[in-house]
Each structure stands twice: as C-alpha cells, then as structure tokens.
Amino acid sequence: MIIKTTYQDAEAFTTKDGSTIRELMHPQHHAAQNQSLAEAIVPVGTTTLLHKHQKTEEFYYILEGEGEMVLGDERFDVAVGDTVCIRPHTPHQITGLGNKDLRFLCSCSPAYSHEDTELL
Questions:
Q1: How many Å separate Cα 89 from the centre of its chain?
Q2: Is the Cβ–Cβ distance between 75 and 68 less than 8 Å?
Q3: How many whole angstroms separate alpha carbon 75 and alpha carbon 94?
Q4: Could you tell me the CA-to-CA distances from 84 to 58, 61, 71, 73, 92 in Å, in that order?
Q5: Is the pLDDT of residue 21 over 90?
Q6: Which residues contact 101 (CB under 8 A, 6 or more apart)?
Q7: What is the mean pLDDT of residues 105-110?
Q8: DSSP-based three-state secondary structure for 9
Q9: 14-119: CATH topology
Q10: Per-residue pLDDT at 18
Q11: Kind of pairing, strands 66-71 and 57-64?
C-alpha cells in the first residue's frame, strides 16, 4: 500500500462537477481507508456545477486565489487560509474570481466518488 505520494506523480483529471483535481491520497490507490485528499483548481472566471453528495462530508481549504462559494442558501467569498465545511446533502459550487486560479485542498470522508456526486 502506498503511504506517501508526490505532487508530480498525482495525475490531474476533471471531476463530475467540472473542477480539475489531483488525488493526493485515496483508498482506491493508497493506504487511506476512510477519506480522500485532493488538490482542486478552478480557473478564474469559471464555476463548478452545482452538486451535492449523499454520504460525503467535505472540507475545502483555500491555498491560492479567491472565489465565491455557494453553500445551500448561503453565498460568501473565500480567500487564502479559509476553510469551508460542506455537509452531506448540501448543494454547493465554487467560482474562481480575481486574477489567479482558485486552488484548494478538498478533504472527503468517506472518500470522494463520482457515484456519490449528484449534479443539480
């Protein structure tokens, strides 16, 4: 089982909501059992598709850029150092704003899966 990954070895792909992610740790490929960690990038001027997860709780930790988060009925700005908790069944999406791509860590428990992602 892989217990350490390097950024360069984590291949980027597009998720169901339209963001580009790199899975840094996921049970399908690594030693993690109950959660996943990925880096997500949302380019300036783009928005992920509104979606929700039936089982997964997520944390977004903003690393670079700025954006606007829609979380249920709330809408608020996010910036470097902010952390957002997204509970299961909560509709959400994020938009990259400013002049730098929005880059954040996304921690999911249980681990992220396309099957648990419902587009709205």
A1: 15
A2: yes
A3: 10
A4: 8, 7, 9, 14, 11
A5: no
A6: 41, 42, 43, 44, 64, 65
A7: 95
A8: helix
A9: Jelly Rolls (2.60.120)
A10: 81
A11: unpaired
Structure token digits, residue 38: 């990925």
Backbone angles phi, psi at 116, to 5 degrees: -90, 0
Cα angle: 25, vertex 16, 29; to 5 degrees: 25
The model's pTM: 0.89
pLDDT in tens, 45-103: 999 999 999 999 999 999 999 999 999 999 999 999 999 999 999 999 999 999 999 99
> What is the pLDDT, as a whole number, of residue 16?
81
- Residue where the block lists tokens 């979606």: 51
What gap in Å lies between CA 52 and CA 45, rounded to an integer? Answer: 21
Structural tokens at position 81:
């150092």
Give the type of residue at 8.
Answer: Q
